[in-house]
Amino acid sequence: MFLALWVGVDGHPADRAGDVLIAASALSLGVQTAAVFALGVRAVFTTAATATLTVLMGDLGAWSQSPGEGARLGAVLAGLIGGAAVGALLFDRQRLYAPIFPVAATGCVIAAAVRRPQKTA
C-alpha cells in the first residue's frame, strides 16, 4: 500500500497523502516489531536501532551469551546502518524508487528464513 501510494503521488505527497503514508508506515513498523517478538529473537529491535546498540554495548561488559550472539547483534546493527545509508541515497537520488529497497530487502530476509534449516530440540 505504501509503495503504491508513494508512486501514485510521484514521490511528493501533499498533506493528506502524507498523513496516509505516515499511518501506513506506522502500521507496518508495528507489524514488523510484532513479528520479531513472535520469533523470540533476543534484543533485535528493527524499529529502534538505538535499543539494539544499547543492548549490544551493555552486554559487552559482562557477556553471558554465546560467542555468536555478539556477532549477530553487531551484524544486525551494521545492516540497519547500511540499510539507512542505501535508503537515504535512494531517497536523495531516485526518490520515486526509494520505497522499493525495503520491499526487496524484506523479500531477501524472508527467502533466507525459509531456506534456513530449523533447529530441533
3D architecture notes:
By secondary structure, the protein is mostly helical. α3 packs antiparallel against α4. The longest helix is centred in the middle third of the chain and has 27 residues. It starts with a helix and ends in a 6-residue tail after the last helix.
**Any idea what the radius of gyration is?**
17 Å
* Helical segment count: 5
Helix content: over 70%
Mind summarizing the main beta sheet? Answer: none
Distance between the termini: 39 Å
Using DSSP, what is the number of strands? Answer: 0
Mean pLDDT score? 77
List low-pLDDT spans.
Answer: none
- The backbone outline, from C-alpha atoms, is elongated
* SSE pattern, N- to C-terminal: HHHHH
- The percentage of residues in β strands lies in under 5%
Indicate the structural class: mainly alpha
Question: Summary?
Answer:
Helices cover 73% and strands 0% of the residues. The chain is mainly α and 121 residues long.
Provide key terms for this protein.
mainly alpha, 121 residues, elongated
